[in-house]
């Protein structure tokens, strides 16, 4: 979701009525002003506006860590070391995307404070983090705390992973896997090409078979853009998937059939994964319980929904569904989101056809749909018309 965080910061807001959404969304004004100040070279203005945005954004908002990180880097550029470290500390303490602070080690904005004891102590926490694990079914477990939901299947022949989380979490991730029974990591399935899902691929690729969508393989050969002035170099050859996927496949691992299906919607390379005997599915960031199902990677919303629905049809009714982030759920919740998504798309499409603005569409739909759904699909459908 790290790459998605940039988009989340631009498009998504919390659930509620139009009036509530406007209040919840008040952080966007200083955030946009801060971005403009940065572009104009007004570092003090950048720092003041980003600090204001970070104060205003709701605590549970998925873009909160990104806004706080902006506040930290702006403060660092403005020479306010204490404020910079405090904002990074907030990112770490609140736990939504704690490992985002590791980017500060490579971010030129923090160059003047990387030697400070307070900064080094904070970054040092990354190596001391403790993860949580949860059994989901069969020999499949969920690991939390690495930046995204990671699945591990531990068998006598080794370990299969779905996603890897951020790279700096790898030592803690290995410890968690060892506590589950350990063994060599034999296979990794990457749900999509965002750093919070594939960050350890460079370190693990030499010891495991890598499965990913062909779009992910292509993306890994390009720099990963995090924000203005900060990007991650392309992955080394060892991290490029040697099992690129452009259609549905099944693999056998540890006595279990694992189905993999392309479900491009959130990025250029999404796949969904189903452990048939364990009855566990990982849908990556194409499904987040608190947000719409589709992102700009989707060029055909109807085709995506139909493809995902057919994938769900082949699952056991009591399948445990793991989203890319947030808590696990079941098939009922995913199907309900598909239903509401279709209704929201139809509603917004009619609104656009009748000449309604995005604000008028949000007001008209506030009693039927969460605010961010109507505004999001309005933007998606308008892009598809261009």
Protein model, in words:
This protein has helices spanning 2-11, 18-24, 28-39, 43-56, 64-77, 81-94, 117-124, 170-179, 195-198, 201-204, 214-220, 301-313, 331-353, 358-365, 371-385; strands at 132-137, 140-144, 150-155, 158-162, 185-190, 209-213, 224-227, 230-232, 243-245, 249-253, 256-262, 271-275, 280-282, 320-322, 329-330. With 386 residues, the chain is an alpha/beta fold. The protein has three domains: 2-127; 132-327, Ribonuclease Z/Hydroxyacylglutathione hydrolase-like (Metallo-beta-lactamase, Chain A, 4-Layer Sandwich), CATH 3.60.15.10; 346-385. The longest helix has 23 residues, at 331-353. Residues 1-22 have low confidence and may be disordered.
Brief descriptors of the model:
386 residues; alpha/beta; 3 domains; 7-stranded mixed β-sheet; 6-stranded mixed β-sheet; 15 helices
């Amino acid at each position: 979701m790290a790459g998605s965080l940039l988009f989340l910061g631009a498009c998504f807001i919390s659930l509620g009525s139009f009036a509530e959404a406007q209040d919840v969304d008040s952080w966007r004004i200083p955030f946009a002003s801060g971005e403009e100040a940065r572009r104009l070279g007004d570092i003090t203005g950048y720092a003041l506006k980003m600090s204001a945005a970070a104060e205003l954004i709701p605590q549970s908002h998925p873009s909160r860590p990104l806004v706080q990180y902006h506040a930290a880097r702006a403060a660092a550029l403005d020479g306010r070391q204490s404020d910079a470290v405090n904002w990074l500390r907030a990112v770490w303490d609140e736990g939504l995307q704690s490992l985002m602070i590791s980017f500060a080690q490579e971010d030129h904005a923090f160059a003047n404070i990387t030697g400070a004891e307070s900064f080094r102590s904070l970054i040092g926490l990354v190596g001391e983090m403790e993860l949580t694990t949860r059994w989901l079914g069969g020999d499949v477990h969920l690991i939390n705390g690495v930046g995204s939901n990671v699945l591990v299947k531990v068998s006598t022949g080794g370990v299969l992973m779905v996603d890897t989380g951020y790279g700096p979490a790898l030592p803690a991730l290995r410890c968690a896997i060892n506590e589950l029974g350990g063994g060599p990591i034999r296979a990794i399935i990457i749900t999509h090409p965002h750093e919070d899902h594939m960050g350890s691929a460079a370190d693990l690729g030499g010891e495991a078979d890598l499965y990913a969508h062909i779009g992910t393989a292509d993306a890994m050969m390009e720099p990963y853009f995090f924000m203005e002035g900060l990007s991650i170099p392309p992955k080394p050859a060892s991290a490029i998937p040697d099992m690129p996927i452009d259609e549905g496949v099944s693999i056998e691992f540890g006595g279990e059939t694992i189905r993999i299906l392309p479900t491009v919607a959130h990025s250029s390379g999404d796949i969904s994964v189903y452990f048939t005997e364990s009855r566990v599915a990982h849908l990556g960031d194409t499904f987040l319980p608190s947000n719409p199902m589709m992102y700009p990677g989707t060029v055909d919303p109807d085709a995506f929904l139909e493809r995902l629905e057919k994938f769900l049809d082949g699952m056991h009714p009591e399948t445990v569904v793991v989203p890319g982030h947030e808590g696990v759920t079941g098939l009922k919740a995913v199907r309900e989101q598909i239903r509401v998504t279709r209704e929201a798309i139809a509603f917004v499409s009619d609104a656009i056809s009748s000449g309604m603005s995005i604000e008028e569409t949000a007001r008209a739909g506030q009693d039927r749909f969460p605010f961010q759904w109507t505004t999001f699909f309005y933007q998606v459908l308008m892009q598809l018309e261009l």
